[in-house]
Amino acid sequence: MTGLPALFLDRDGVINVEKRYVHRIEDFEFLPGIFALCTAAQGLGHALVVVTNQAGIARGLYGEDDFRRLTVWMLERFLERDIRISRVYHCPHHPTAGLDAYRHDCFDRKPNPGMLLRARDELGLDLAASSFVGDKDSDMQAGAAAGVGLLLKLQGGPADAEPGAPVARAIEVASLEQASVLFQRHVAARG
User: Fold this and answer.
1) Is 54 annotated as a binding-site member?
2) Where is this site: Stabilizes the phosphoryl group (predicted)?
3) 89: CATH
4) Which residue stretches of the chain have pLDDT < 70?
5) Which of 20, 49, 158, 169 measures 20 to 30 Å from 3, CA to CA?
6) pTM (whole model) above 0.90
């Protein structure tokens, strides 16, 4: 398929410091290197797409409106740096915990590839030419299942609440700066 390449980003642990169910602006802290990574990707013609599990909604810790408010604020911070996030996808569900309306195994919830496949269809993306930066095995599993070309797993994040098998082709990186270097090399090698 020909289409636009994308850089997929998990939110908690990649865009912002993982602090467990972040839903308030005052608790949101951007991870060092995220703006430089996004600027580089945008400059190379990649769409920027956020794909995030938000089980705190299912657990009743915060609501959809809280998530939307924080997302608008986050997107404004990116725009202040001339970075345009094409789309933010979130899954508010959890397969076993939380409120009845949100308790089910959703195809969008990573490690399932639903959010990435929707982004492909809605934005006309070429997943094989795309990259994904996440901090959990479930991020890498979703990327692999969707056929994303480059999978970069940021080290140092919390263990998966629902650990799965590591994805063999995922490359572990120590920082977003290292992720940016590998991403740019990957794009250059693809020509």
Assistant:
1) yes
2) 52
3) 3.40.50.1000
4) 1, 157-164
5) 169
6) yes
